Amino acid sequence: MTYDVYFHNDFDGRASAAVMLAFLRSRGDDIMHFVPVNFDLTKQWLDERFFVKHALFKGPRNPAIVLDFPYHPGAAIWFDHHPTTFKKEAWKKMFRKDRFHRLDPEYLSNCHLTYTALKENFGWRPPAHFRDLVKWLDVIDGARFASAAQTIMLKEPALQVMAYVDGTEDDRPATEAFVTLLAEEPLDEIAKMPAVRRMAKIAQKENLKGLAYYRKHLKTMGDVTLIDLTATTISSLRFAPYYLHPTVLYGVRITKKGRFYHMGVGANPWIKGAARKKHADVHIGELMRKFGGGGHKNAGACEISSKKDALAAAVSLIPVLNGE
Ligand SMILES: [Mn+2]
């Protein structure tokens, strides 16, 4: 049997597709079209006949495999770990879990879910190098990094490969080739390839530039940091505040996103125990709702139409996050 695979165009989606490819090949099956997809496709995705009608590639349409992306009843195979996966009530009702269709939000990565499901459901014996891949996708997709420094310095081969994934987001041929590579080679070997090394070097340099900007402009108020990135092209470094100030509890950042100002708020993931308990009642997602946004307990965001209002919103949050 020949399939087409539609996978979320991030590291987890690509790694899920690689695991699927290795599994299919072990059964004498194969994939014809590798199709990276993003959430901007959601409207078209709601069409029951999406897989027949879309223009994402030319040529014959094979049975569809969907990975790390919302449920579609037309998918022959589907694995996802997003709790928000059902885009229609009717689809949620229609869904039946079986060997080829599974949702499990308990998994930090869809790569891990796909790997485990194929092993358990089909007695598949995956190549040994997938154990490392699965471990790292849990770290990356689940944001379980060992330290803030790890996310900035990108010393580990897996994180250098992550930089390559981020850098090839819009490069369709590179993305397709990468899935096959990931199915065949360990991360350590992929990290040694010249194209990957080049892109990892660029990312490391950009991160250090970003870090210098944070060092100069990051403000600390009690347990909270604030960075205004609206006047710079430096890309935001989510964990830089905790690299510079390991004991702060929260980071607030303002960035410009199109016509809007984006306020992102996050909790320092490396603070545990008593210091964290002090703020047990702070729910960032709930706080963001006041500004028309949302999120989870430890991270949230909102879009605000003017810079003045965005900064005022950030300033109003500081005492709340400080527990005052
Ligand atoms: Mn994922």
What does this structure look like?
Helices cover 44% and strands 18% of the residues. The protein has 324 residues and is α/β, with parallel strands linked by helices. The chain folds into two domains: 2-141, no CATH class; 219-321, Diaminopimelate Epimerase, Chain A, domain 1 (Roll), CATH 3.10.310.30. The strands form two sheets. Strands 6-7-8-9-11-10 form a six-stranded mixed β-sheet. Helix 1 runs antiparallel to helix 6 (130-141) and helix 8 crosses helix 11. The protein is globular, with a radius of gyration of 21 Å. 37% of the residues are buried. The mean pLDDT is 95. Residues 12, 68, 81, 109-110, 141 line the site of manganese (II) ion. Manganese (II) ion (MN) is lined by residues 12, 68, 81, 109-110, 141.
Task: Provide a quick synopsis of the model.
This protein has 324 residues and is of the alpha/beta class. It has helices spanning 11-26, 42-45, 50-53, 89-94, 110-122, 130-141, 148-153, 157-167, 172-184, 187-190, 194-217, 240-244, 274-277, 284-289, 307-321; strands spanning 2-8, 30-37, 64-67, 77-80, 101-103, 219-221, 224-228, 250-257, 260-267, 294-295, 299-304.
